Each structure stands twice: as structure tokens, then as C-alpha cells.
Amino acid sequence: MRFGIIGVGRMGANIARRATRAGHECVAFDIDSAVVHALGADGVQPSGSIAELVELLPAPRVVRIRSENPPDTIRVRQDGSVNTNVLEPGHQLVVISSVSSGEAYGMNVKGGGPPMQKIAAPSPEIVLDAQERTRNLNLPAPLLAPNSRVRLLAQQTLRGAGANESDYARARRLSLMLQQRAVYTLRPPAIPANVDATEYFLFQNRRGYCTYFAGALTVMCRSVGIPARVVSGFVNPEWVENGQTGLLREANAHAWTEVWVEGWGWATLDATPPDDRGDNAPDWWENWADLLGSTLDSGRSWLADNKTKVAWGLLLLVGMLTFAGTRIGLADPFLARLQRLTTGKARLSQAQAQRMVTKSYYKAARRLARRFRRRTSWETPSEWLTAAEAALDLESPQPLRELTKLYQQAKYSPREVSSQDGEAAMAQLRLVSWKRRKEA
Predict the structure, then answer these.
(1) Are residues 225 and 154 in the same domain?
(2) Alpha helices in 41-160 (DSSP H)
(3) CB 138 within 8 A of CB 226
(4) Mapping DSSP to helix (H, G, I), strand (E, B) and coil, where does residue 92 land?
(5) Is 30 left (phi over 0), alpha (psi -120 to 50) or beta?
(6) Are residues 282 and 250 in the same domain?
(7) Are 135 and 170 within one domain?
(8) Based on the structure, what is the number of domains in the chain?
(9) Is the pTM of this model over 0.85?
């Protein structure tokens, strides 16, 4: 086969060399002519322009652009990729891509899909050369450190893997773990500066789109010695014309992972949750839900990054409220319970204990007024209670009697009100019952 490559970067150069070694003929063009001519030593035929490259290829051409008003020129970007501009209605872009040999993807291996167990006698023709293996195991040094959280998570996930499991089966365990650990969203929070993207996705954010899932799976695979790479393209086309032609939109863009399986070749794994693959055009409800989820996650992330500030702020707020409540008596019951829990005794000041007795009586008096009547100015608390008992015929009036007694002592007796009096008033308030006696 004779084919052409436009834009000879590192990947393009490797494809050209490997194809030439396999017996194919390759024509190459790049804006950097020195790079193209350097490939001549490997048997690649250089070309001085895209037009010359096209002329050197037999029909049908590898790439052609067809439309009612074809563009005058094809521009090549600095990175070597072809810029076709924005396609107008009626324009059609047809790309015929070169596919790797069947051996590289296990196409010529009997037994169907990627093996779950190690191949006992791998084919000598299906190998990953040293340069490719190094490239697809490469990671920044911090991610390969023994204490790397990403590496430790991958090792923990693979702890139950059998000794004879293939790298595909091990990578699949990592993929399933990712699908359960993270949530798909088109609006993930921005990755903070100087933070590793994979570590942030796995341990803090846990929200992202297909690139996040594919990148995380690739990094985890590499961290445990499984060659892996990220692949991008399109999925889930809209099939038309009796299933012979598929319509791909920007919403179908997707990224996934390929792992190298010894003796079998490159195997595809997709860590993105199945329902979200190639789904980049959600409806309005999903957009709002996604926005709300991202906002909540951003809030949780902020709280996680500012735990110390939040803790000191809460302590300050509690202190201020406690001080204010103490001044007006609101915190007295709380302080009494806290002291009893910590020391076994409630040690309140006389003023605090007196406020507790008074407040307890006033609560009971308001309830009594709703059921009987308000106390007149000439009635003592005891007289009012006696009249209420006669009218209401309460079944258990004793708690009200004790509470009234404590209130009158706190209000009129020269004796100091103790912490025990305050606790007793609260206890009697809890025992107050408005149940009436049953008629005989």
C-alpha cells in the first residue's frame, strides 16, 4: 500500500518508519523540510508540498475534500495538522485513514476478544518494541513514587487480582473502579495550579468528562506497569442510509484508553460510565443539574481546602453566641448540661440559676394561661394555680406546684438560688402534664 502523511511529528514519523519496515510505501510532507528529508534514510519518500504529495499517491487519494465550492488551499498548522476551516452547509469531508495491522489489535488472534488470562504461548510477531513500551509507561516522577496516592489506589484495586490474570483483566478492574468512584459532568471545576490533574480528579473533585476518565485510567495503568495510551475520536454515530453511513457531530466526540496485552496487542477499555459515552449535548434539565452539582462540588472543595479557617470561624461564632446568650440568659440550660456532662455537676452562678427558674416558670405560665386564663394583678402565683386546678381538674398538678414554689422562692425569698434549684425547675417543666382526670 502507498499512502501519505501530512505533518510528521513524533507519532507520524514512527508510523512512517513502521509502515516502511512492514513493506508499505510512504510519502511524507511537513512544514519543516529537514524533518521530512531525515526520514529519507528510513525509506520514506519526502515531498515538497501537499500538492506534490497528492500527485505522488495513486487513486483513490488518502485524503480528499469535496464540496460545491472547494477551498482554494489547504493550510497546515504549526503542529503539522491540516486546517480545513469551518465546513459550510453542502461541504463534505471524506477521510480515509490508515489502520494499524491486524496483529496490533488482536485481529488475527483466535478466541475472540482480549484474553482475561495470560497467554501461555504468545506470538513472537505481536510484540511492543522497547521504544513504544517506554513511551507508553512514561509518567512524571511523583506519580511513580512509592507513596503516590494514585499508584497506591491502583495497587489497592488490583490486590484481589489473580496471578495469572492478563493486563487487560487488571486494567478492566481499574476501569470498573473508576466508573464507581467518579461522576460524569461537562462542567468540572477548574484544576488548581500546581496540582496533578489525575490526583485532583481521583481524590478531590471526582467529576469530569471522558478525557478525565481516560487520562486517569491510563495513568493508573502505567503506574502499575501496564503500557497504556489515550485515544480520542467519535462514538455513537447517527446511522443513516440503511446503516451504511453514520452521521457524527461534535457531541459524539469521545476519549478512551488502549492497553497493551502481551501476546495479543492493543485492547480498548472505556472508563467513562456507559450512559455518558459520546454524550456532549445534554438537555436543559441535565445542564441545570450539572451546574448545581458542580457548584456544590466547588463548595465542598473550598471547604476541604479551608478546613482550618472554617473551624476557627465556627469556634469564634459559637463563642460569640455563647457570650451573648450568657448575658441574656439563653445559654444557661446549655451551660448546665455541658457542665454536668464534663464534671458531673452543674455549677451555675446565682444569676444564671435564677434566670433558669424564672424562664421555666414563665413557659409553664404561658401554657396555663392559654388553657385557663391570665393571672390577674391581685393574684399571687399560688392563688392563680389553685384556681386553675379547680377549673381544669388536672390529673397530675404536682409539677406545676413545685415549679410555682421554686419561682416564688427565687422571686421573693432572701435565700440564694442554687444550681440545683435551676436544674429542678427545668426538670419540673418537663414533667408538666395538662391531662385532666377522667369523670367517674
Answers:
(1) yes
(2) 50-55, 130-135, 141-144, 149-157
(3) no
(4) strand
(5) beta
(6) yes
(7) yes
(8) 3
(9) no
Are 141 and 253 members of one domain? yes
- 135 with 235, same domain: the answer is yes
Q: Residue 267 sits in which domain range?
A: 106-305
| Residue 251 phi, psi dihedral angles, 5° rounding | -65, -15
Q: Tell me how crowded residue 74 is: count the other CB atoms within 10 A of its CB.
A: 16
Please report whether residue 292 resides in a domain.
Answer: yes
- Amino acid residing at 288: W
The reply to whether 148 and 234 lie within a common domain is: yes
User: Could you write out the DSSP letters of every residue in 283-326?
Assistant: -HHHHHHHHHHHHHHHHHHHHHHTHHHHHHHHHHHHHHHHHHHH
The dihedral built from the CA positions of residue 163, 167, 172 and 173, taken in this order, carries a sign that is positive
Which helix (H) or strand (E) element contains residue 231?
Answer: strand 228-234
Q: What is the pLDDT of residue 336?
A: 55
Nearest to 101 by CA among 265, 256, 234: 265
Domain annotation covers residue 316:
no
Alpha carbon distances (Å) from 340 to 136, 326, 337, 413, 417: 64, 17, 5, 27, 18
Question: How far is Cα 29 from Cα 37, in angstroms, rounded to an integer?
Answer: 9
Cell of 405: 414554689
For residues 381 and 407, is the Cβ–Cβ distance under 8 A?
A: yes
CATH number where 25 lies: 3.40.50
Which three cell numbers mark 17? 518508519
Chain segment 162-198, per-residue pLDDT in tens: 889 999 999 999 999 999 999 888 878 888 888 899 9
Residue 67: its pLDDT value, please? 41
